[in-house]
Amino acid sequence: MRPQGRAPTESLYFTYPHFDAPEGAARERLAADTRVAIVGAGPVGMVAALTLAREGVASVLLDNKATFNDGSRAICVSRSSFAILESLGAVAPFLDKALGWTMGRSFFRGTQILEFEMSDPASEKYRPMYNLQQQYIEQYLWDAVAREPLIETRWQSEVTGITDHPDAVELTVTDPQATYAFRADWVLACDGARSPIRRMKGLRLKGENYEGRYVIADIRSGHDYPTIRRALFDPACRPGGTVLVHKQPDDIWRIDYQLADDEDEAEALQEANVRASVAAVLADLGETGPWDLEWWSVYSANTLLLDEYRHGRTFFVGDSAHIVPIFGVRGLNNGLADGQNIGWKLGHVLTGRAGEDLLDSYSPERRGATLDVFANASKSARFMTPPTRGWTLMRDAALSLALDHPFAGGLANPRQMTPFTYAESPAVLPDDPAFTGGAGVGSALPDARVDGGFLSDRLGAGYTLICFDERLAEGVRSLPDAPDVVCLAPDSEAATVLAAGPQAAYLVRPDRHVAARWTTASAEAVRDALARVTFQSLPDNAAAGTVEA
Amino acid sequence: MTAAEVETVYEALALGIDAAGGESELFLAKVALLLAREIGDPERAVALIESAGRHLGDRAAA
Predict the structure, then answer these.
(1) How far, in Å, are A19, A22, A175, A187 from residue A28 at the CA level?
(2) Does residue A278 surpass a pLDDT of 80?
């Protein structure tokens, strides 16, 4: 919502573009078959389309709107999401604009009781978190999509029907000029929390609704404070409630405040009441300067997901598959990881580099990530918005104790987003138990400094083997359909970070998660592992032992 | 105790308070006595009781 007199996309600082529906010659191919149709050109759909393009696969990207999503919405972009953006060649504008941060402060009844630092070792290329308004996220992804010849975007094009056929999905699309149908081999439903595709297929999200509603409001203010997440528990401006304050680019501040149980939502969302509530928070923060109200919305904590993210030739990706609480900033970040996950898998299958069974690993991997989010978010939610007197009393006890007893502050840990470990996935191998430390199978590869750059800079677009022995590297490079190989010095920082001895090796997936690792690797083991995690049979000559390490 | 172990105790206390309903103050007093006896160090127990008495109802001026 925006102040009276301003249109839904009339921002104080951002000019929303206008996109026309397909016109002229572009309409001639609307009914043509396509390999992949992506429904929804939000951040998740655009990441999926860009990931497919990187794999060499063309897609049709449809959106029923004529511009980006309104409002700043998701503002926290995690380190793992920056790695995704980098892999898509899109990270530069994000780095220029976003505000990186590492620190949070918690206040109890006006007194700072806790300061936490997120892990930010020099071996990591990106900061643990960045703040950036969602419309910039969409703008920068759109700039990359618009440059990409393999993506055909159709704005103002609403999918109004979906029919499954044995070898394709038929989509009916309505745009301002016509209604037409076309067939796609695969469909990615990136159409958001109220997913029309989900509804048309008769599927429902299942799960729970937590206590606690928040108004999220953006203001423009010259407020002077570093990019540090502030959590105000039981502040004077909102007794018994919780307030979160985040800095964004362009002098925009996000203020989230909890509504009391007896507060009427419709009344709380009236402009005058939002202004009064924001003014009270600013007074608590000691801010007396002028400010403008930019945008506001309301949010309640849900943990909802689909039983299965794959339905035949349709995959649910992002909010269409799951709705997660805001605490821990996992909605957008997990959505981007979903888009990348299905994007590279579908890309590998459609380009003959993996068997179709790889696609069945999407749902368990990303559904597992969502369930992990739920476990963390439910703990965060009961701290941020305690549902009963018992949880409230214990939360207040922890906050009160934290001043003198640091252990109690640990209970206020906001459990920010960390990438999920796919240890149980069919698309990774069992871990080598001889490792002590490093990055376990299924986990996101940590970064390390290499010759003035980073390990992540050396990774290929497909699978990459990281090893520390030139003879092994040569053996793997001479394999048919060899993965990229990065051979580093045994005393490199990467070897330390990965707990790798001279004979060790890591096989890394296109999404930079560890597919397999060995304390003592051989070219044959790498070849067999690659065949297994990509669901391909071994080449005929493999059994004859023609490859030696 | 690890952070996870502290969390386990935190959860048990929250659920215990809710289960005790109107008698939660009595419940917490009993918990305190039982834990103090387990420590087996009366001076330490009294020091912790004094520590818990700090910052009750503090509210810094805005």
Answers:
(1) 19, 10, 14, 21
(2) yes
Q: Which residues of A touch B6 (CB under 8 A)?
A: 407-408, 410-411
Query: Do residue B7 and residue A379 have CB atoms under 8 angstroms apart?
Result: yes
Torsion of CA A88, A346, A362, A208, to 10 degrees: 70
Enumerate residues 39 to 58 of chain B having a beta carbon within 8 A of any beta carbon in chain A. Answer: 51-52, 54-56, 58
DSSP conformational letter for A74 = -
- Cα gap A449→A442, rounded to integer Å: 22
Could you tell me if A185 and A36 are in contact, meaning their C-beta atoms sit under 8 angstroms apart?
yes
Tell which residue, A242, A292, A299, A287, has the closest CA to residue A73: A299
Helix (H, G, I), strand (E, B) or coil at A544: coil
Mutation test of the interface with chain A: which of B11, B18, B31, choosing the one with the most A Cβ atoms within 10 A?
B18
pLDDT digits (tens, 9 = 90+) for A300-343: 778 899 999 999 999 999 999 998 877 766 789 999 999 999 99
Burial A280-306 (b: 16+ CB within 10 A, else e): bbbebbebeeebebbbbebeebbbbbb
Residue in the block written with tokens 């989010």: A373
- Using 50, 70 and 90 to split pLDDT, how confident is the model at A538? low
pLDDT at A549: 37
Q: Which range among A193-207, A375-389, A493-507 shows the weakest confidence by mean pLDDT?
A: A375-389
Choose among A293, A13, A49, A5: nearest CA to A135.
Answer: A13
A chain contacts of residue B3, beta-carbon cutoff 8 Å: 407, 410, 413
DSSP secondary structure of A377-391: HHHHHHHHS--SHHH
Alpha carbons A83 and A81: distance in angstroms, whole number: 5
Q: How confident is the model at residue A49 (pLDDT cuts 50, 70, 90)?
A: very high
- Centre a 10 Å sphere on the Cβ of residue A35 and count the other Cβ atoms it contains: 15
pTM of the model: 0.92
CA distance A240 to A108: 10
Nearest CA in chain A to B22: A389
Identify the CA nearest to A490 among candidates A474, A506, A508, A467.
A467
Kindly list the structural domains of chain A, giving each domain's residue range(s) and its CATH number in brackets, ordered by start.
449-542 (3.40.30.120)
Alpha helices (runs of H) in A119-270, residue ranges in sequence order? 134-147, 196-200, 265-268
Q: Which of A62, A83, A293 is nearest to A169 (CA)?
A: A62
Confidence (pLDDT) at B28:
97
